[in-house]
Amino acid sequence: MDNSEKVSATSPSSGDEFKDVIKGLIKLLMLVIFLGTIFIWVLMPTLVYRTKWLNPVMRTEFGTSTFFGAIGLTFFMFMFPMVLMACLGCLYLHLKKLKNTTHHLAREKITDGGVFAAMKRPMLVKGPLGIVSATELILLAMFVALLLWNFFMYMRNAFPTITPQSAAKHHQKLWQARLEAMAIRIGLVGNCCLAFLFIPVVRGSSLLPVVGLTSESSIKYHIWLGHMLMTLFTAHGLCFIVYWASMHEISQMVSWGKTEMSNVAGEITLLSGLVMWATTYPSIRRRFFEVFFYSHYLYIVFMLFYVLHVGVAFCFITFPGFYIFMVDRFLRFLQSRDNIRLSSARVLPSDTVELTFFKNKGLVYNPTSILFVNIPSISKLQWHPFSITSSSNLEADKLSIVIKSEGKWSKKLYEMLSSSDHHIDSSLSVSVEGPYGPTSTDFLRHESLVMVSGGSGITPFISIIRDLIAITQTTTCEIPKITLICAFKKASDIAMLDLILPTSGLELSTDLNIQIEAFITKEKEPRNEETQKIRTIWFKPNLSDQPISAILGPNSWLCLAAILASSTLIFMIIIGVMTRYYIYPIDQNKNKYNATSRSILYLLVLCVSIMVTSSAAVLWNKKKYNVESSKQVQNVDVPSPTFSPSSWAYREIESTPQESLVQCTNLHFGERPDLKKILLETKGSSVGVMVCGPKKMRQKVAKICSSGLAENLHFESISFSW
To answer: What pTM did the predictor assign?
Structure first.
């Protein structure tokens, strides 16, 4: 592209400034709602909440309602604010997306040092929490303090009311009465963890991106919450078992009350949770991933019997996060029903495969995004996430992922493709979910970028490099100097560097200052063997296949807000009518109606509301936007098979698209990178440091960035496995 055709970085227009004001107001409103929700959690265990607010005010308003009954109180206090916050998040992200499309790429200067920069640096590098910044550690400490506050206040208010006389009325000893009270309160504290447990694993979340997070980077929060939740729920269950045994009422373990709490349902909830908890142990998860994967489907059993245990009115205290997760999960289910049009597969000599799919030209994603892939011929149930290596700004109608042959699933895929003798193969049935990733990136803020990878950890950096190549072709923005440090075990793994450039034959721009330092740790010198080649397999088109597209279309955030709002509204209307004309005549708001039947009925209505609104939105978007996509698939010709050379160790420089890449690459055999030296010698007032690879590598880089030896290093780990 000529320089005259490039877009220069311009200052924001008045329209962008107005959008920034609106976004600021939305974030402020979301913060107010969030702080209000936290305030309620702080207030809940106190006497002020029960005597001054709950009983005289809220229960008077909602408890006598003939439309909602007792559930109206918890629904409007806990679920409604969270849904409102999620809808506001959708509106914020829609406005942010509109601004991103205007291509204002001016670099925002990052000031050195300061409290804000220090808060983002890693504080803990090793330990059970993983790599944790000061901000994360403070928030974790505040959440633990909230749990301790709840437990302390519950016990402080309960124990004074328990006397030998009051215990004797229930044929209890004093310690038994206190044990029962403590067991109940431990369960109440555990509900606080459950209320937030599902929020970090909502892949299409409208809450996480508002604060700069993704579901992949938030997995550790889900793990922390899960450990705290199961510790509290296990203690809750054990205390009751000890209490029943001491009271000679062990038969209570098999009781299922019609209008009261069901103990059996609580025990099933605990057992299913314990199974999931046990399989999260690191050695079990790594060695028996399928056990870990399949056991986590027990979350359905866990939540169903939790609702049956506590009752539908109480469950809405902890249900908002799970409700948003349910919407996201059903949308993912709808997306996974389509077979995706697979263009080609590049088989590398390093036991690696690159799959290239067709995508809708309107689908835009950011670097470091991931795609979940399912291949029914290998496993109908298993879904695996892979980093996207392509750039939607560089390849408008293609999307690529790289799969390293490491586990059982990936080995079967590699064997399937590498054993094929044909360059043109029949179509391979593939389903996908995603892509998921950050809503924006800030690579241009830095003067230099240092990307450290180990093995297949290079894949997210390929997408970053391709995106920067696209920026050099379309704008005159100043591009950061790039240093890619990649460590491989064997020389054959260097073939992954061939994937940095797309198959279209694009060369590196002279505007892109990139240096690649490749380290082969297990081999001391290149082997004099026949040049290995990358083999490309093209797949025949299938008329039923679809390109990858956004499940909710180009205005996906607005559609998601509509789904959340309309499904909630439909649920409220149906529940209101059903309660008024069916349940209330029987119940009279006196808990006469069967609790299990009520819970199942309400859950069914909630599920139907989500399914109807989500399906309607998806069908409407398919009808509106997929006509062009279908033509895109049908008009594809299968190219002639080609080979790409990949012997980096002894390749002669030729006039090929890879020539520019070879010239900026240094190979180091039999040694490991001196990360400390490289990072500390990197010039620039702001150096973005990204690492993706083994745990020890991430810890080492994090330790260097947090050491204080260089104030210009800004650390970010984009490796999502523990």
So the answer is: 0.89
